[in-house]
Amino acid sequence: MSTHITNVATVECRRCRCPNYCVSGDGEQRARDSGVAQFRSAGAGASLELLIIRGPPGRRQMGRSRSSRSQPQRSSGMDGGGGGGSAALDDDDAYLDRVRLVDASDSIELSKVDRSLSLADSEDWNFSPRAASPTTFSWNRLLVFMGPGFLVSTSFVDPGNFDTDIQAGAQFRYELVYVLVGATALGLLLQNLAARLGVVTGMNLAEICAHEYPGRVRYILWAIAEVTIVASDIPEVVGTAFALRFLFGMPLWIGVIVTSLSVVLFLMVNVFGVRKLELLIGSLIGVVLICFVGELLMSTASLGGILGGLIPTFNLRAMYAATSLIGSVVMPHNIFLHSALVQTRSVRRTSPAIREACYYNFIESCIALSISLVINVSILAMSASEFFPNPHAGLLSAPALLQRILKGSAGSTIFAIALLASGQSSTMTGTYAGQFVMEGFLDLKIEKWARALLTRSVAIVPSLIAALVAGEHGADRLIILSQVALSVLLPFSLIPLFKVTSSHERMGEFANGRTVKVVVIALGAGVTLANLALVFAELVPVVGAMGGFTALLASCMGLVVFGGYLSLFAYLLVRPVTTHSLLDLKPA
């Protein structure tokens, strides 16, 4: 006679709220593999624990006598409760080592019932579950998980965002507010998927890609990830240089060189650990929020204009500005970063514990990105009210914008402080992202200060060239170009994230549902089509103006790059996710 486990239940301890998970579906096979499967259930009037310890058939020959295994008896707790279930087992089960019932010291309540636990060819283990209690919100639990979302949100309010917001408002007034809102919503969705990926699998996206794709593709994805990190660091370099110019009158090119000292600041902060870094960056974001919301309230921005900008419109002339807005908000390196940062919180490898972590991570991301949206809309609205129409407005124009609003030189100082704060916080998070990417893809560990110096050294080169050759306006233009590059390269992080989080083999019950799949596909397709339209709209006139052999050579190079882009895009879309499971949930 064999013991067959059909389904199990998920329960939660009422006293300490600790979750306990019972594997379902292939639970019997996984119980054999892991060696121990623990199942908890609640009887009428009493709480009992059914513990099943399993092992391979060979364990029957390890000297354990069958007479030493007694039939399980009901505990006094069950007797006193009027009876809620019974169990009759046969010792002939090849994989059954021991079954016992023990009176649980803590009161157990069912938080979710999948089905029942039955023992085939014997009496069923039945129970009368209490009503399922929903997950209750706790500020204390939120504080435990708070931090990673705010670290990630720094990239939503960095100098690149300031520049693109100012240019969008100055050129198209409130017309692109809906792009900001949509990009933030897409960013929230992707950050939620990234956080869930990290919590459920215990791996970040770079590690997943390293396991998922063959060597050549893995190195290409690593190179693209590094390019996105450098592209995201360029606005921090230029923005910090602008801040130093506003504060101390320092020439821009000297400010670019001085930004290399950010590595020293990072070293000083990193000594105190990631939690202190989260607190510091959260404080810096608070400074930025106070600065810009206060300035918005003192400006002549129109609430009606902002609300009207929520209605989508199509303007081909605004394509470049819209794409730069998307790139400044939805940054590829943030996906790698968030999937790794959530692992700084210890989460039990049980279904309810993982569900709780995902729940609070999502709430934190909502709070952090809502703050970033308020900041970005404030900057765009101020620019729209003060600069429109001005196609040349940018970071360089910001002090003049704030002086008009605040009627004095204080505006320039406030903006410079906000710019410096956002630039430094984004530099620190970019360093963490670079470290996670390098370790995940290449299994190459590098000190944080060395990683920060490497990224900053590469980002300084184009920034310094732009500052020396094209001056302040050239450096301003470089920021916008870097944001467009981030938007164009976004699919190579988005597709692996989407496919892995949609895989039931990888994610189990935490895989994406149909609604999430439809939304991600629709938004991803929209961003990709916008990127392609932008590339053609920007490059075709440039190539056409070259003429002769130069135009032919540029066209051939463009076709090769475009062909490679589409080939990798199609490969990532078509290639199925590997079928082996990385999801290893353990019973409590």
Quaternary structure state of the chains depicted? single chain
Mean pLDDT: 70
Largest sheet: 3 strands, antiparallel
What is the alpha-carbon Rg in Å?
A: 28 Å
Name the beta content range: 5-15%
Full CATH superfamily name of the largest domain = Amino acid/polyamine transporter I
Which regions contain 5 or more consecutive residues with pLDDT less than 50? Answer: 1-134
CATH T-level fold name of the largest domain: Amino acid/polyamine transporter I
What level of helicity do the residues show? Answer: 55-70%
The number of domains is: 2
Structural class: mainly alpha
Give the CATH architecture of the largest domain: Up-down Bundle
Question: Numbering strands along the chain, what is their spatial order in the largest sheet?
Answer: 2-1-6
Main location: membrane
Region (Disordered): 55-87
Biased composition (Low complexity): 68-77
GO molecular function: cadmium ion transmembrane transporter activity; manganese ion transmembrane transporter activity
Structure write-up:
- This protein is mainly alpha-helical.
- The chain folds into two domains: 105 residues, no CATH class; 389 residues, Amino acid/polyamine transporter I (Up-down Bundle), CATH 1.20.1740.
- The protein is 63% helix and 6% strand.
- The strands form two sheets. Strands 2-1-6 form a three-stranded antiparallel sheet, with helices on one face. A three-stranded antiparallel sheet has the order 3-4-5.
- The N terminus is likely disordered.
